[in-house]
Automatic annotation (TrEMBL):
It holds the Pfam family DUF3074. It comes from the Eukaryota. It comes from Hapsidospora chrysogenum (strain ATCC 11550 / CBS 779.69 / DSM 880 / IAM 14645 / JCM 23072 / IMI 49137) (Acremonium chrysogenum). The lineage of its organism: Eukaryota, Fungi, Dikarya, Ascomycota, Pezizomycotina. This is DUF3074 domain-containing protein. Residues 109-293 form the DUF3074 domain.
Amino acid sequence: MVQRYGPFVRLWGIQNAQLPGVTATAEELTPLLTSILLEAVPFIDDVPSAKQSPYTSSWQTKGSRNFSHSEAPVHVYERTVSAKELREVARENHLPGLSTAPKLEPETWFLRRSVHADSATTGTASWQEWYKCFKESHAEVEREFTPTVLSTRLEREWDCRGVEVDVDGETWGDWTLRLEESVHKMPTPLRNRVFPVLQATASVLGKRKFIVVQIAARDVTGMGMGMGAGEGRQGANVCAAYTSIERLKDSGEGIEWVMATTSDAKGVLPQWVQRMALPGMIAKDVDMFLAWIAKKRRQGLGKDGEQNGGNDGEAMRDGAQPRAPASQVAYR
């Protein structure tokens, strides 16, 4: 798939006016979901791997990290989309306020890649567990294994049944589209951050492969955020932004977990400080998840989770039709 930057999977995010109506049909949702997929997949496709040379990749290696709860090393990479490239995207897509912005900052992305054995054992996880946790229950599970996530909220959900997108010989189905927010705890004296996102997920029919794309949501009405203008307001959260692309697939060598993100915590926290911390933070997520899933197995919860996730995981692998998505997800 040819790499082409687009207007949606960007740190500047998506605005309320760009969102589909809540009663949008599958036909009406397809153009947006297709655009998101065509932007996200090629952006992470050329990350260095056993099949992709680092010399032809757009991603620069930042080393690897080993963790006590992961048998697999975690490789970290960096990539920058220049201000010139972003300005061209904004101009081509007639994005108000961006194409003529006097100072458009470059987008710095960090990516991690790890390959895990397909097994419900210590130090790794089974495909059914990956599918259950990240395709079906992404926000809930992230809240469970990430200590800094204080809460999550589902604000809006679209019915994507019937949407299928064909790209390079693969059919992406089992779509979900949700508007969500999460509140993250920050160290004192910084205020907590609220991250509103538009989340799209899809699986390749007949294969063990799925993607989760989260796009920063801007100027979205109806979100339940207690936001302040900055760090100085007592009791107020600061609205921050992140956009991410996450893909899990059976690579033939194991379960490949790739996650790329660009973010801005806003407030008084300098961007250079954020860029220094982010590579280590995203790599640590692998360790935290595998520690969490191992604990769940010991508590006897992993068996049910594996069975439930296995049904959908096997359906997708064998090419069966996926079940319809739930109409509502309840967050604690």
